[in-house]
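[step 3/7] fold_predict: job queued, chain A
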Amino acid sequence: MEMGKKLRKLRLDRGLTQQQVADRLGMTRQALSSYEGGRTWPDLQTLERLCAIYNVSLEEMVHGQPGAEEEKKKQGLRRLKTGVIVFAALLAASTFLSSGLLWSANRFFPAETGQLSAQELAAFEQRRQLTSLWEGLDGIILVLSLAGGLWLLWQKRRKGIIPPWGPRWKALALWGAGMLLAALPFALTDPVMEPVNYLVTPLYVWARLLLLWLADLGLDLAERHGKKKTG
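[step 4/7] structure written:
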């Protein structure tokens, strides 16, 4: 791939405008556009600064082949993406099962009042068991979501991966949408409880993941600022 096309692709992949990159380099947008259009070639110092902005090695920028360290980071990013998808699937599946337990208790074993017959007592016991399972699974979801979120962030920081903005938002949206969609069919068809009873846990889990996401983003921004100052 030609250098100009490569520079343009790297910038677009990271969701940056020409003006944003030009401001970081301390040059005009027209000068950067000239690089990307292949009309001029950046000098070595500018090329190194572009590598720092796009988080690629000089070897990959010039030759198109990542070095060993760069390839290791790419593999780590692929594994992290897989972890995000597996985590989302696990949250959605556990939310679906938890919602199904509560819905079954309300649909098939509604709570009765007054003097209960033997049959009604048996149904009440079935309801109690289902709601106990629902409460227990809800607690597991809370623990699982926190442990999984922390594990993913630990893997990310351990491998020195700094994803672009786009994938970060997609991961957060995937986690929230998966849990809400898993609970929604039960929430809308429950004959006893309001939908909010089904959505409290997914929203609480998503809010906690959002806080972890923001904390990690803050650390990444601080690291980038530190590198810019030392560079």
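[step 5/7] annotate
The first helix runs from residue 3 to 13.
The chain is about 80% helix and 0% strand.
exit 0
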